Amino acid sequence: MGILWAVLSAIGFALFQVVNRRAGLGIDVLQATFLLILISALTLTGIAWAVEGSDSLQQLSAPAFLAFALSGVFHYALGWTMLGLSQRAVGAARAGALVGISPLFATAIAWIALGEYISFIALLGIVFIVLGVYLVSTDSY
Predict the structure, then answer these.
(1) Number of domains in the chain
(2) 5-36 in b/e burial notation, b at 16+ Cβ within 10 A?
(3) Where are the bilayer-spanning segments (predicted)?
(4) What is this structure's pTM?
């Protein structure tokens, strides 16, 4: 089931690339990111309360809340704003391909910060991902 969720996530991100590029054409990138995060937060809050109830947030520890807050700053505030800028500069297709190098950074950071083991096969896969992203992003349109 985990692979299915990952594939559905990839489809969702692909749809986001195209829709966000089109929606953000007539609006400032920071405003577009703000609206995106606001609408997502409201939608997810409603879904979470319907599924989990409001008690689940009250059970969150302070360190966990801080970790989620930092994650939100890096991923949403900075990452999605920079993605919006990238989409405007190089288009949704190329920006989407360039985001494909995130496994390289995630693997390196997880190894350094969390001490996670990286197998040779995983490293080989990352090399192929980076090579593929390079080939896609340097192709002339």
Answers:
(1) 1
(2) eeeeeeeeeeebbeebbeebeeeebeebbeeb
(3) 31-51, 63-83, 95-113, 120-137
(4) 0.67
